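2024-03-11 09:14:02 INFO worker-7 job=invfold-0412 stage=load source=structure_tokens
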């Protein structure tokens, strides 16, 4: 498995999910833009406390090694409450599951993001998940309730929304879809 991991073709994103090597194409520019804009919108109020409550740590595409196997997952954005991660560790991969994860959907990743990754995140104690679809301009907000993912809300288009766990601010969806 390690040799396969090291010898993947250039331009391929690799994760190990449920013990299987999963390869997907690198994301399109619109995917990268949505993730970058969302990170920028959340960082100032929730990490730095500018115009919001602070108390979070965000990372773009961190490598997560979760579970006993472990599963090796690269979410688009992950967030930890500051009390769980008071300092950023100087490590190549994190074993502490995030409190919140965002996956930006694309044709090559959507089935994995909605399937295996959601199951692994739930198993490892992630409480909040956002699925962002730049193609259809949709934000889905999920939360674990009684050990199951429950869709809390869906937002379409270019409006301003409040979405948990970051409802302290209005998020401008138009920024995520801007070209």
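2024-03-11 09:14:09 INFO worker-7 stage=emit residues=179
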């Amino acid at each position: 498995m390690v040799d396969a991991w090291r010898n993947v073709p250039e331009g391929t994103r690799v994760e190990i999910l449920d013990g299987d090597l999963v390869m997907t194409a690198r994301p399109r520019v619109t995917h990268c833009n949505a993730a970058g804009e969302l990170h920028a919108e959340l960082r100032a109020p929730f990490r730095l406390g500018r115009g919001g409550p602070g108390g979070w740590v965000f990372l773009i595409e961190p490598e997560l090694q979760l579970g006993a196997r472990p599963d090796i997952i690269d979410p688009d954005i992950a967030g930890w409450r500051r009390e769980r991660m008071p300092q950023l560790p100087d490590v190549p991969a994190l074993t502490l599951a995030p409190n919140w994860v965002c996956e930006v959907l694309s044709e090559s990743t959507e089935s994995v993001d909605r399937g295996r990754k959601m199951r692994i995140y739930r198993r490892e104690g992630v409480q909040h998940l956002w699925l962002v679809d730049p193609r259809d301009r949709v934000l889905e907000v999920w939360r674990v309730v009684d050990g199951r993912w429950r869709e809390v809300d869906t937002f379409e288009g270019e409006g301003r929304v409040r979405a948990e766990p970051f409802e302290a601010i209005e998020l401008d969806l138009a920024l995520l879809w801007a070209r």
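2024-03-11 09:14:09 INFO worker-7 stage=report msg="The mean pLDDT is 89."
2024-03-11 09:14:10 INFO worker-7 job finished
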